[in-house]
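Structure first, sequence second, as always.
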């Protein structure tokens, strides 16, 4: 799809880059949307691409990334590779004139993220991080209530995301070259949640358990803002945490239950009042919310989503960089220390 082209009067045609679990989940969700098609899939393996295409009834399977980028029937590329390959994959798509939805963590560091954002803006192409939380209608309602003063001034945000370990040393979560560790894989969620509400922090503190390979396994993050607000966040690949979030203000609090990154409800506690439960039915689920937002933007000619703005993605990547710096985690792409 050339820069400036708007998709109208037909289904948006997706190309999926990668064939792992998250690519399968996204594809299954998108195939249930009435105004979307998945027309092509690409992998570095012909066999993997063909198997994935057969599983989901996709017309074309490309055994290399270049084939997907040259596919004229693809309107937008969904990048679902490990985040160590996001810079290369999304960059290749943008260079080929394809709009991109790129999984999180967006890249390995803020420098790579800035390169992708600059490329998209130079070419007037759509680019969005696949932060589905920001597109969830329950989260949108939560943000609206907070901004309307439902809990007063935010004092503290708490959120966690931990998986039950242990993971073997050869697992991608333990490999620095693949961007291993808890922060990029899981910490991106609580950090993004806090920054959705408070913006980029003025101070970043962190501590972590570091693996022999040099990646973080269990990490605590304290963010501070000049307003006096703080965020207490954690991520782990050594134990399953509750995966909940709480936003506390001067006149109340909001509690988001397990799965705060894709919630179906939350509870508002106002001082002196009975708890109120909020839901927000949209007819969509899971990754359909982010896919629908991408397609809305493509139909209106927008190159950035107001729900997942690129400047916000860059701000989150800067915070993740700062966390890794505080705990001493460096990836090969970061280059030598100063």
């Amino acid at each position: 799809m050339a820069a400036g082209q708007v998709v109208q009067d037909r289904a948006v045609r997706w190309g999926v880059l990668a064939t792992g679990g998250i690519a399968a989940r996204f594809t299954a969700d998108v195939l249930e949307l009435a105004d979307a098609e998945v027309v092509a899939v690409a992998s570095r393996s012909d066999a993997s691409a063909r198997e994935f295409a057969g599983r989901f009834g996709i017309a074309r399977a490309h055994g290399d990334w270049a084939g997907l980028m040259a596919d004229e029937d693809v309107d937008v590329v969904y990048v679902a590779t490990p985040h160590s390959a996001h810079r290369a994959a999304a960059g290749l798509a943008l260079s080929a004139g394809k709009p991109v939805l790129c999984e999180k963590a967006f890249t390995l560091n803020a420098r790579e993220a800035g390169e992708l954002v600059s490329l998209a803006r130079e070419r007037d192409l759509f680019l969005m991080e696949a932060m589905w939380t920001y597109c969830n209608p329950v989260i949108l309602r939560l943000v609206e209530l907070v901004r309307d003063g439902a809990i007063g001034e935010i004092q503290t945000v708490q959120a966690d995301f931990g998986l039950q370990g242990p993971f073997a040393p050869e697992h991608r979560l333990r490999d620095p070259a693949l961007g291993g560790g808890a922060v990029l894989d899981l910490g991106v969620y609580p950090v993004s949640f806090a920054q959705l509400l408070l913006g980029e922090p003025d101070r970043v503190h962190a501590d972590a358990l570091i693996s022999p390979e040099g990646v973080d396994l269990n990490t605590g993050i304290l963010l501070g803002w000049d307003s006096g607000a703080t965020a207490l966040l954690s991520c782990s690949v050594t134990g399953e945490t509750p995966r909940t979030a709480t936003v506390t203000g001067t006149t109340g609090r909001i509690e988001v239950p397990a799965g705060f990154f894709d919630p179906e409800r939350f509870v508002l506690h106002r001082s002196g009042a009975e708890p109120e439960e909020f839901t927000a039915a949209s007819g969509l689920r899971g990754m359909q919310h982010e896919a629908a937002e991408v397609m809305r933007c493509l139909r209106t000619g927008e190159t950035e989503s107001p729900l997942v703005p690129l400047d916000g993605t860059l701000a989150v990547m800067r915070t993740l960089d700062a966390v890794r710096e505080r705990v001493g985690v460096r990836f090969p792409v970061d280059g030598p220390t100063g």
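Margin note: The mean pLDDT is 96.
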